[in-house]
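We emphasize that the prediction below concerns an isolated chain of 239 residues; any contacts that depend on oligomerization or on bound cofactors are therefore not represented. The input was used exactly as deposited, without trimming of termini.
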Amino acid sequence: MGDHSGIEWTDATWNPTVGCTKVSPGCKHCYAEVMHRRLTDMGLVKYAEPFRKVRPWEPHLEQPLRWRQPRLVFVNSMSDLFHEDLPLAYLQRVFAVMEQAGQHTFQVLTKRSGRLREVASALPWPGNVWMGVSVESAEHVGRVHDLQAVPAAVRFLSVEPLLGPIPALPLAGIHWVIVGGESGRRARPMDAAWARDLRDQCVAAGVPFFLKQLGGERDKRGGDKALLDGQLWREVPAA
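Result of the prediction step, given as a C-alpha cell string:
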C-alpha cells in the first residue's frame, strides 16, 4: 500500500503501522478491515496477522523519504496511528520521519482523540503535518475539542461516514472539513440535508468544505456525482 491513492483528498497513502480495532459506530463497516482480508488472501506478509492485532511495521517506516516528488500523504489509511497498542516511542519515530520528509504534506487522521491530546506535547509538530479527527455524528463532537488543543499547522475534520445531523460542529481553530456518506455493501444512507447543514456551517465560519461522496451501496456517488444543490464542493486549506 502506498505511493498512489484513489482517495479524493490525498495523493498517496503511507502505513507505518498495521491493524486496528473498532471504537465507535463509524467503524461498523470498516473498509480497512475488508481490504486487510483481501491483502491477507493475496499473501502479503504485512497483513498475515488478524486485523485486530495492532503493531508497528518498521519496513515501511522510512518509505516517504524515498519519494522525491512532493505529495499529499494520508498517514495510516489501514490503521490508526494513535491506537493505544502503539508505543509512544514509535509514534515519535513516525513524526520524526514526517519532519525529515519536508517535501511532503502529511495528513494524519484518528478516532482516538483522547490519546492524541494526551501525547501531543511529546511530539514535534512541523508545518507539513496536518492533524485530523473523524466525527461521524453529534455524539462524537468531543473529538473536535481534543483536536483543538493540538498545535498542528492545519487541523481538519473527516465527517465520514456521516451517520446523522450535527447541528453544532465546533469549528474554532479548524482549517478544513471533509464530509462523505458511507459506501459499499450495507452502506448506511446519508441525508443530503445533513451535509447541506454542515456546508452552511463551514461557509458561515469561513472554513473550507470538501464533499467527498454522497455514499451508496452500488455507487458511492463521488467525483463529479458528489453534487450538493447542483454544485461540487472541493475546497482545500490554503496552507
